[in-house]
Design a protein that fits this description.
By secondary structure, the chain is an alpha+beta fold. It contains three helices and seven strands. A hairpin with a 2-residue loop joins strand 3 and strand 4. The radius of gyration is 14 Å and the shape is globular. Pfam families: Acetyltransf_10 (PF13673).
């Protein structure tokens, strides 16, 4: 297995297909949440696609992107069901945070996290900001990364 970070223009057609396939499998099908999964953030010049590949299959993914002039964000965080519970999500997020630190100039790093993952993200250094809200019918919370 190997980790890769690529811009939209550097992705191969097969890599893009595998990324989108995994995102739809988890966010649309598994979570039963029909919404526009693919958006213009995917192809923005500052966006970085971080993914884990094994045997040409993408098994974990996160999108690191510029949310505003001073803010970076991490989203679309996914680990394939066959790798869950093996620490891959922690590794993925540590790599995503590092990707934002090196590739996206920012003053703040934020995420919109599903509420049930609160302890996971808090353990990585994120702090809840504001009240919970519904996004596409799923409870979410905004979180800010605070370096330890």
């Amino acid at each position: 297995m190997n980790w890769q970070v690529k811009s939209y223009d550097a992705l191969t057609k097969d890599e893009l297909f595998e990324i989108l396939k995994l995102r739809v499998e988890v966010f649309v099908v598994e979570q039963a949440c029909p919404y526009p999964e693919i958006d213009d953030t995917d192809r923005a010049p500052d966006t970085r696609h971080l993914f884990l590949v094994k045997d040409e299959q993408i098994l974990a993914y996160a999108r690191c992107y510029r949310k505003s002039a001073t803010t970076a964000s991490i989203g679309r965080v996914i680990v394939s069901s066959m790798l869950r519970g093996q620490g891959v999500a922690h590794d993925l997020m540590h790599r995503a945070i590092a990707c934002c630190e090196t590739d996206i100039t920012h003053e703040a790093l934020v995420i919109s996290a599903q509420c049930y993952l609160d302890k996971f993200y808090t353990g990585l250094g994120f702090v809840k900001q504001g009240e919970d809200y519904l996004e596409d019918g799923i409870p979410h919370q905004d979180m800010l990364f605070v370096k330890k």
